[in-house]
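so the lab meeting is tmrw and i was supposed to have these ready like two days ago... anyway. pasting both below. for each one the top line is the aa sequence and the line under it is the structure tokens. i havent really looked at them closely yet so no promises
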Amino acid sequence: MEAVKPSAVTPSKSKWVWVRALSKVLHLEAAAAGIVPDDGAVDHKVKLKETEEWNDFQTTKRLSQKFDRLHDEELERRVAVEALIAKIFATVSAIKAGYAQLQHSQSPYDAEGIQAADQLIIYDFKKLSELKQCFLKKQYDDPSPEHAMLLADIQEQKSLSKRFEIMGRKLESQLRFQESEIIFLQEKLDESDKQNRLLEKRLNQSGQLLVLDNLHRSSLSPSHFITVHRQAVKSIRSFVRQMIDEMRSADWDIDTAASSIEQGVVYGKAYDKCFAFESFICREMFNPFHHPYFSLLGNSVAEGKKHPQVFFERFMELKSMKVKEYLAMKPKSTFAKFCRTKYLQAVHPKMESSFFGNLSIKEMVSSYQFPTDTSFFILFAEMAKQIWLLHCLAFAFEPEASIFQIPKGCRFSKVYMESVAEEAFHLSNIAPQPEPRVAFTVVPGFRIGKTVIQCQVYLSPIGNKVTC
């Protein structure tokens, strides 16, 4: 066996140099990276780092606990403030309820209620003052603020309910008072209506226009004519009502009868059809109003009979008498002729026959025998009297009063017209018209000098061309 050479086992000198250089380089890098090659130094460094981390954790924990305590204290303070504010609002609501009770107890007067409400208000004001001091001094020492807030809310709701209850009692009291006042006013209205009916009955029975007593022709004015005109219109409507009642009793078709008088008219209400009958009666009774004595004496009337003073004397004579007495006393007078002529014109034989089953009234009137024991003829005679008085008074003026009526289709004018039914042209199922139109004249109008007594017309949304 060959002997091992020393150079094969032991490294050469140059190789050791290289190893020491490499080791030195590694030590430098380790030092730069903070690595201590010494084992004891490394352990010390690790322990120091763990101690610092533990200290940081403890500090963070203490800060978190302190923040939580501060947060809880702020939350408790806020809840306590909200509880105090809830108490304040509940107390204010209680004061309002106390004032409502105080006001309610004053009318009608309730001494015990007033005293109790006053004591309650004083107690609530003292409580409100205490709450104010607590708020200013920041004394939020309520042991259970949530419970206090709930109680305050319950108290506020109770006070609110009490206020509504008092308001309800007050409204009930006002309602009872209004109902009693309505009953009282209704009784007064019924009494007034009763008195008016008695006066109207006396006026119709006596035939006297009391406001025209002691009248002289020299003192005539349009106001006197207006008074007689109103009475005439009232008597016309009384007779028309009686005539329509007789038609209903005789099973007449009111709609057909109204359409035969005024054709193509749209009525706002079913009741408005009565104006067609009133228009018919007025046409018959006022024609020819503008001729002296309604042309009953012919065209050759003596000048003396046409003098205004003569008409005024006839007016005063008939005004002061009952119509039954006058017809019985002067059955062949000019007024009696007027009454006979107009009855035969206005009341058709078929109408009278359907009303009464015979023509006895017409036969008696034709022979100047006036049946003053029947209500139908008495209403007609009273109407005829008022129209005759209006005619005589019209010719007592110098110049005499003139009559006029409005043609169908004319525009409405408040100067010369008065609508008997204002809502006649406001119909829901008909397109609104730009202007109301005259469907027919109900009661003619009059002129006395510069004074105009409006013509009473019925307005309807008719599609006729404008004629005036």
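ok protien two:
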Amino acid sequence: MAEICRFSEEKQSSEGELVEAVPLRTPLPKTQIAILLLVQMPEQLTASVIYPFVNQLVRSTGITGGNERKTGYYAGLIESLYYAVEAVTILQWGRVSDHIGRKPVILVGLFGVTLSIVSFGFSNRFWMIILSRCAQGALNGNMGVVKCSMTEITDASNMAQAFAWLPLAWSTGYTLGFLIGGVLSDPAAHWPNSVGRYPLFHRYPYFLPCIVAASVSISAWIITLLFLKESLRGTASMNGSGSHSGDTKKLVVQTATIHDKPADAQADILPRMLDEAEIASPVSSSLESTRTDFRSILIPSVMIPVVHYGLLSFVDQCMLVLMPLMYSTSRSLGGLGFSSNTIGLVMMVWSMLNGTIQVYAFPRLLRRFGPKRLYITSFAFYLITFSTYPLMNYMAKRKMEAGMWLILCVQLFAYIVAYNTYSCIILYVNNGVPSRDLLGATNGLAQTLGSVMRAVGPTAVSSLFALSLEKNLVGGTAVYWIMCTIVVLVLCFSTYLPKSLTST
């Protein structure tokens, strides 16, 4: 734990009421934070590296029987299984890390991800692909463990600063995954005079992007082994490497009300902080939360944001799956006919811009519009992202290339705006908790529901895509209008979100 910070003089309101205690910020342990961010990146990289070529891979296995319209059924299953298995195992990895330490679990996760993505690269049968993807989800429990480690090496004065870098790590992982998967897939066809000389790349055309992704993961494993310090205090003490000291004191947490209206006086709005005792003893805090009646979080202020988080996860995962699926489908069947390379580059540009813009734009937008208005406005942009698909195909069929690319740029911009919803809803989830003892349980519930919805989304939307093409429903575009309908329903439900957020 970073050294406990000292607080400046408490400010008083005009009525003499205590408003906040402003902490003197403790310097971040930059090296350890950087390593944890590096650890987090391979999860997104290995999850996204398959997106540019997964539909071509499915067709190459022969499972579709040569019917391109059926691709969506099987591609969606591959993408769903990863999140389904992860939803089952992620909490168990967290519990194991409470007993044996964070570092061992992180090392096991990185090594497991490395093996599973290499196995995926060698898969040329559908059942092999399924097993590899399931193994990747089962062995990858680092998301929750990394958050625990970051909590343990920071305090209330710098925790938000540390967590603000996580979206950039995720975005970097997605960007590299889309780039590697798009540029390096089927190298024998793209570079026949160099890579094409090796029979390995003819037999396994998607092995190269997978082995490159694995090299990033194993590099993170080596750096973690050599330089990451154990953050769980009891384990660090047993290993003789305890780096955290100091008496446990209760920190004063600022009280603020966040109204759903523009306010220049509002500072960057951050989720509720754990107090020093909870941070210093995460295992004790976790056990205390477990003993707390779980029904205490089954209240509207918690459940409405949690349900919204699940719905957002579903809609966003459907969008992410439709992008490579529709882009790779031939123009005559309602797609754009893009190659794996083009798909990877398009998704890489979106991911890179999205990560950069979110870091710098979100706090300003939040101050200007307030959380509820920003959430509703941003979520409405999903209507644009889904409705532009049939318009792009209409232009592609008529060889209106400039118009098609213009609409594609509009879609990517709308998707970037829509991504503001994640930061907003996480803010709602954390501020709805009735007690800090229930913060872990609430976030665990939201994370589990999100993983379940991310598992359901790919199978549902890819099956709808395939069904729309097979039955020619609404000219093969029914899936997009169904998704638009779901977005409208979620927008109606969003009116139940509170107009203000209070963190105490």
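from a quick look at the 2nd one: DSSP finds 21 helices and four strands in the chain. Residues 439-471 form the longest helix (33 residues). will dig more after coffe
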